[in-house]
C-alpha cells in the first residue's frame, strides 16, 4: 500500500488501496462507509470511531484528505492552500473546542483590501474606506451619516443587490460588489439570494477585520495536519483516489454517509444542481512580500481574477520568496459553491425529499446538503448529525433491550404455564 499522506508527515493510517480491491471477504465489512474526507466526512468518521467504536471506511476521489481545506508545502517550502484561502473563524465554542483536540492554533485576524479606483482600500467598507475613497476626515458618527445619505432604501430586501444598495447605495455597490459578484457567480447580484452579499458587513468604525467572530485562529501546522490527527484512529481506514462508484457494490457496510454532491448521488434525476467552480493559478515570486495583506479583492470586471492570496500572511512563515494564488471563477470544474437562489433551493428540496426517503444514507456537508457553509458550520452540522446518530442508537438499544426483556418475561410465563399444565396432569 502506498502512503499518500500529504506533507510527508505520514503516520501510516492514511492509505491508498489499489483500485478494484474486493472487500467481500473483509471481516464482516464496515459499520459506516463515508464518502468525502473533507470536514463533514472526517468529523463524522472521527466521532463514530471514537465515540461509538464504529468501524469506518472513509473514501475520497481526490489523492488527499481534508477536502477543500487541503494545504501543503509547495516547492518553495511555503504552506499554501490548494483550493484557495481558507480562514478559520467561528462563534461556536463547541466547534472551536472540538477542533482543538486535533490542533494547536495561531492567532490570525483576516484583513482584506479591495482594488478600487486605483487604490487599495479596506473591505468590508468601513470608516477608513470612505475616508480614502472620498478624501474625507470622519468620525464614526460622520461615517454613519455619510452612508445614510448614500443608501437607497429597498422596501423588501430579497436579492444580493438589494442588501448592498439598501445599506451603502448604488455607487459603492457598483465599485465593490457588482463586478466582483458577476465574475464570481456568473450572475448579476439581482439574480442571487440576499444571503450571498450579506456575508460581508458594512462598518462605520475603523474595524478592518474581514470577520467579526469571537474565535479567529489558524491551525498552527495547517489543516492537513489537523485532519491527519483527527483520522488517526485504528477503526478508521482511509482510501484515497477512490470514487464512490468504484466501491459502492464492493464494500460491505451497514450505513452510508455521503458528503459529495447530492444530485450526483441520485444520477441527476431531477436535473443538475448548479455549482460554481474556480480555476486556481498558484505561483511563487522572487520577492519577499507581494501585497500588504493576505487577500486583495479585484471587483473590476476588466480583471479576470476575483482575488489574490499571499499565504505568508496567514502563517507568519519567513521565506525570501512568496507564494500566491489567483482565483478565476468558472462554470466547469470541481463543484465549489452551491448557488443560492430560489429556483436552486426548489430543486434541492426535491433531492432532499428523495434523500429523506432513502434509508441508511445520510447526506452531509456543503455539497451533500447544498448549503453555502463555512468550515465551522460544516463542523457544527456534522457534530449535530453525530448527536442524532447517538440518540437513534440509544433509542434502538432501548427498544432492543425492552424486546429482550419482553422475550425473557414471555419465556418465563410460558415455562410457568407449561409447568402448571404438567402439574394438572
Ligand atoms: P469538501 O471539503 O468539498 O469535501 C467533500 C469531499 O468529497 C471532497 O474532497 C471530494 O473530493 C469528495 N467527494 C465528492 N464526491 C465524491 C465521490 N463520489 N466519491 C469520493 N469522494 C467524493 N470556509 C471558511 O470557513 N473560511 C474560508 O476562508 C473559506 N474559504 C473558502 C474558499 C474557497 C475557494 C472555497 C471553495 C471554500 C471556502 N470555504 C471557507 C468553505 C469550505 O471549503 C467548506 O465549508 C468546507 O471545506 C466544506 O467541507 P465539506 O466536507 O462539506 O466538503
Ligand atoms: N463580495 C463582493 N465583493 C467583495 C467581497 C465579496 O461582491 O469584495 C460578494 C461576492 O458576491 C462574494 C460574496 O460577497 O461571493 C461573499 O464573499 P466572501 O468573501 O464571503 O466569499 P467566499 O470567501 O465564500 O468566496
UniProtKB/TrEMBL annotation:
What GO MF terms are annotated? flavin adenine dinucleotide binding; UDP-galactopyranose mutase activity
**Organism superkingdom:** Bacteria
Q: Which residues form the UDP-galactopyranose mutase C-terminal domain?
A: 175-372
Indicate yes or no for the key word Transmembrane: no
Its cellular-component GO annotations read: cytosol
Statement: the UniProt record of this protein carries the keyword Cell inner membrane: no
Q: Which cofactor does it need?
A: FAD
Pfam families recorded for this chain?
GLF, NAD_binding_8
Q: Which InterPro entries match?
A: UDP-GALP_mutase (IPR004379), UDP-GalPyranose_mutase_C (IPR015899)
Q: Which UniProt keywords apply?
A: FAD, Flavoprotein, Isomerase
Q: Which family does it belong to?
A: Belongs to the UDP-galactopyranose/dTDP-fucopyranose mutase family.
Q: What is this protein called?
A: UDP-galactopyranose mutase
Amino acid at each position: 500500500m502506498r502512503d499518500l499522506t500529504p506533507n510527508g508527515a505520514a503516520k501510516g493510517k492514511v492509505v491508498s488501496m489499489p483500485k478494484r480491491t474486493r472487500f467481500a471477504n473483509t471481516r464482516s465489512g464496515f459499520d459506516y462507509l463515508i464518502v468525502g474526507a473533507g470536514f463533514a466526512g472526517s468529523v463524522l468518521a472521527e466521532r463514530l470511531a471514537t465515540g461509538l467504536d464504529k468501524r469506518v471506511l472513509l473514501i475520497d476521489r481526490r489523492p488527499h484528505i481534508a477536502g477543500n481545506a487541503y494545504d501543503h508545502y509547495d516547492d518553495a517550502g511555503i504552506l499554501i492552500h490548494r483550493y484557495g484561502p481558507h480562514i478559520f473563524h467561528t462563534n461556536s465554542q463547541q466547534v472551536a473546542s472540538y477542533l482543538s483536540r486535533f490542533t494547536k492554533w495561531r492567532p490570525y485576524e483576516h484583513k482584506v483590501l479591495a482594488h478600487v479606483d486605483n487604490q487599495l482600500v479596506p473591505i468590508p467598507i468601513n470608516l477608513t474606506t470612505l475616508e480614502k475613497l472620498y478624501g474625507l476626515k470622519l468620525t464614526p458618527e460622520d461615517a454613519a451619516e455619510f452612508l445614510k445619505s448614500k443608501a437607497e432604501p429597498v422596501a423588501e430586501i430579497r436579492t444580493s443587490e438589494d442588501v448592498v444598495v439598501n445599506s451603502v447605495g448604488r455607487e459603492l455597490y457598483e465599485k465593490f460588489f457588482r463586478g466582483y459578484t458577476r465574475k464570481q457567480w456568473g450572475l448579476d447580484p439581482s439574480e442571487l439570494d440576499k444571503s450571498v452579499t450579506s456575508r460581508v458587513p458594512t462598518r462605520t468604525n475603523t474595524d478592518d477585520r474581514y470577520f467579526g467572530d469571537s474565535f479567529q485562529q489558524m491551525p498552527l501546522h495547517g489543516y492537513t495536519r489537523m485532519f491527519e490527527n483527527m483520522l488517526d484512529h485504528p477503526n478508521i481506514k482511509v482510501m484515497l483516489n477512490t470514487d464512490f462508484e468504484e466501491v459502492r457494490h464492493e464494500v460491505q457496510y451497514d450505513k452510508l454517509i455521503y458528503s459529495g454532491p447530492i444530485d450526483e448521488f441520485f444520477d441527476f434525476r431531477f436535473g443538475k444542481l448548479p455549482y460554481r467552480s474556480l480555476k486556481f493559478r498558484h505561483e511563487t515570486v522572487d520577492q519577499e512580500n507581494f501585497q500588504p495583506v493576505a487577500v486583495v479583492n479585484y471587483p473590476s470586471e476588466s480583471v479576470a481574477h476575483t482575488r489574490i492570496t499571499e499565504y505568508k500572511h496567514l502563517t507568519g512563515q519567513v521565506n525570501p520568496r512568496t507564494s500566491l494564488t489567483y482565483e478565476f471563477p468558472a462554470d466547469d470544474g470541481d463543484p465549489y459553491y452551491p448557488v443560492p437562489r430560489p429556483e436552486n433551493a426548489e430543486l434541492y428540496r426535491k433531492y432532499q425529499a428523495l434523500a429523506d426517503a432513502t434509508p441508511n444514507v445520510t447526506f452531509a456537508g456543503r455539497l451533500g446538503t447544498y448549503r453555502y457553509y463555512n468550515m465551522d458550520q460544516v463542523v457544527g452540522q456534522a457534530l449535530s448529525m453525530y448527536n442524532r446518530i447517538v440518540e437513534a442508537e440509544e433509542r434502538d438499544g432501548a427498544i432492543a433491550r425492552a424486546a429482550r426483556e419482553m422475550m425473557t418475561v414471555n419465556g418465563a410465563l410460558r415455562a410457568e404455564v407449561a409447568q402448571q399444565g404438567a402439574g394438572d396432569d
